[in-house]
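Incident log, structure service

09:12 report received: a user says their structure output differs between two submissions of the same chain.
09:20 pulled the input from the user's history:
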Amino acid sequence: MRSSNVWTWSVLFALVGIVASFAQTPSTTVTGTSNVLNPAISVNGLFLGKVALSEEEHEDDHDQEGEEHEEHEEGHEDDAEHEHSHGGSGEPGIEVQEIELQLSAAIDPYLTGTIILAMHGVSGIELEEGYAETLGLPANLALRFGKFFQPFGKHNRLHTHAFPFIQSPMIHETIFGGEGLNEVGVEASVLLPTPWFSEVRASVGNGDNEVLFASESGGDLSYTGRLMNFFELTDDAKVEIGVSGATGAAADTERWSKAFGVDATFKWVAAGASKRTLIAQGEFLRGEVGDEAASGGSGVVQFRFLRRWWAQAGLDMQKPFGSDETPNRLRALIAYVPTEFSAWRIQFTQTKHPDEDPERELLLQLNVTLGSRPAHAY
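09:34 re-ran on a clean worker, output below:
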């Protein structure tokens, strides 16, 4: 009897040892980002320093303009609360712009999972994205379930550390708010049978966006879609063109909000060791909430002139909701990118509102990544 127990325990311990040895052996999956039993983990940190370059002496000489400016700022307190998410203008100094934790893994042969937690500043953690995606469905179909950035335009799906500039474009914040168009819902994507790469994405969300939707009825959903086409012009040059739309119930449930966008990206990468790269990108957005509309666009040109150095410039402008003014923002940036895990960026920004002196500031950002970093979209 005792001998039987000894053999039983010996077999159990042997099986545990075999399982443990496999669990400690690294392996790749269809996603390329996972180990056998553990998710790939990465932490991205953004640290920001700001210096104001504008002269403020004119405020004492124009009290009336100052009061109007204060009223304008009070009307946008909600936007200020979300400044952390896009590195917008604020008080000069040094701050933790964002800390982002990402976990990615293959759940089983049919699903992958991603969770992204973000901390803005030095307190408060929120679920930025958390979703599961299908694998191996027929007809080039894929499904996504959870909380994620909706398939609208080019900029909306970017995380803060992947922004072309340190801030979001003005029109993007005006139409979607500081957090972007990020909803809980389900998304379907399919590759079309065309000679070039063509993809359609459509999603249904809870309709919680603070600007466009914000309906008090839990049954009011939002609907978003994007058609993207990708063309190879030559071996070195590619272009991407997208058209997007979104609609859903506004805070006044008798009205529906709408948004429309077009975007285009041109990318050229030189052959050889130099890896010189030129990227030109533009995006136009228009949003309607009730009888009010906002529209605007942004453009950026990026050039990698040395293996580790980038230079870029961009302009964005908008016509906000309920206003005939057209503020604009000019930005120029130099980036030193020694590896894919770190980057130093220094940016000059000039924001101009009609009948006001330009606001100028200098921003210095350090972008670092710890751990395995999944590939980013084109």
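09:41 both user submissions now match this output. Likely a transient worker issue. Closing.
09:42 reviewer note: Helices lie at 2-23, 58-61, 63-74, 77-81, 170-176. The radius of gyration is 24 Å.
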